[in-house]
Protein: long-chain-fatty-acid--CoA ligase
Organism: Pleuronectes platessa
Amino acid sequence: MYMWFTVLAGLALLSLPVITTLFPYWAADLTYILRSLRLGVRLIKYKKSKSFYSILDCFLDAAKRHPDKIFLRFEGRDFSYGDVDQRSNKVARALQAAARLQEGDAVALFLPNEPSFVWIWLGLSKLGCPSALLNFNIRSRSLLHCFSCSGAKVIITSPELQDAVEEVLPTLREQGISVYILSDSCSVQGIQSLSDKISKASDQPLSRDLRANINIKSTALYIYTSGTTGSPKAAVVTHERVWAASFIQAACGITADDIFYINLPLYHSAGFLIGLSGAIERGMTVVLKRKFSASQFWDDCRKYNVTVVQYIGETMRYLCNTPKRDNDKSHKVKMAIGNGVREDIWSEFLNRFGAIQVRELYAATEGNIGFINYTSKIGAVGRLNFVHRLFFPYTLIKFDIENEEPVRNSEGLCIEAARGETGLLVGKITKRSPFIGYAGNQKQNEKKRLHNVMKKGDMYFNTGDLLRFDHENFVYFMDRVGDTFRWKGENVATSEVADNLTKAHCIFEANVYGVEVKGHEGRIGMAAITLKEGEDFDCSDVYKQVVDNLPGYARPRFIRIQPCLEMTGTFKMRKVRLVQEGFDPAQIEDRLYFLDPERKSYVPLTEEINRAIASKEIKL
């Protein structure tokens, strides 16, 4: 018996080089599949457990297990698990007394990246209250719209965002909304101080009975996304989805001994779900940054012994554009998790900063399908495997880009895209992979559902993204369709921008789209417009309109004036040709304008300005 075992072991060792040559990713595939199965079993256990166990309970267990371990590091201050637990108890008790919050009441957090964001969210979770995470860049109508989506009756903000809240305060007061600010006092009528109430509250633990009816299907968060259609929408994030997203770190092999650097906004699913919730699931230390800084990034990583960082395509490019240093590779970062990086930047990042494992992701906050590139393959956003597809069915279907609709056969069913062909990614809606949708927006929910895809009566989630599966089972992101493009790491809803543009007195119609700029990630905003009869383009008024109502990343930097807008046969605005033509004044006969922040106006786009953009003398 021993002899046969020795022979088999020897054959296995001899065949290993052959297997590795024929199947170079088998070890990575096997490791990832085994991790995924273990995490899947845990999720099933949580779903079937009579006593619901949430990410909050995971945090509480960590606080009991190692109360003195550092949980958050922020601007020179350290906060242990035990400390954050006690602070969140005080928050919960203060809000329970002041706002009369009860289980299920939604509360909007309009806060910057700071530790108070974390313990306020935890405190609300202890009361069984879902949090609506508002983008702190939004203002005016967008702020009111996003706030109202969640149905919240309470909003919590910080002194640095007080001016933005005061802009909409009359409307909030009319609607009976309670506004709290993290300060010891506030003289503005309609805004109540909260810090003084928190400091006086008890830090004793709260009863689980306060959240007794919360279960894995309950709403945990509202995270805002423009998806691929319309204005920002509140994606409903259940506790089940929080768990699934928090497992991404574990699936990548990250452990409790790692130190995680969050420099992305906590109102995003990347920063909050993958970063913060993932860190809680692992029981690790988080270094929280108020905002991304390319010049401080590596110094922070060295100072705090960071081992895992987050990124978006823009942040990697910014890091590569910093002046080279002798100590570029002197750090302990072993892994970077994120999405949206170009192949050339990816390669440059590795060459300059060392052999860091880049874990490029593909996912959507409201979606039911996602991928992780758990290998070293540059450029891919994921990898196909049978276990993933078994539990989360998906397919790529042929898509008509010009008419922005799936291609269907004579039976009315969609046609699967061939290997190597670009197609629209759709995820089958099942009990295991549901599409929860957006709060109070059934119209948009239905737009994201595709019926009769592979057979009559089935239903799939429309990601709105074009992907490609190659013959080695790698997944590549190709483009985004519909009414959204991505710039500065944010989704921009073209219909929302167009609505704001047409409020300018001179503009009749607006067709908004994103165009590529060499050396930049994503697409920058551009609008083709027509003018009202007898009107000329009012540069200052249009500038004021977009600056007053749109965050910086959503403001169209280029405007093209046309005699009429081209429509499809179903009266949809055509964008394909406009996107291809871009904004080169040497190639376009229409009048072009450029948003100049220094002059606080739109100015004619000259070839000189275009050259300055290309050479990066003008920063976008």
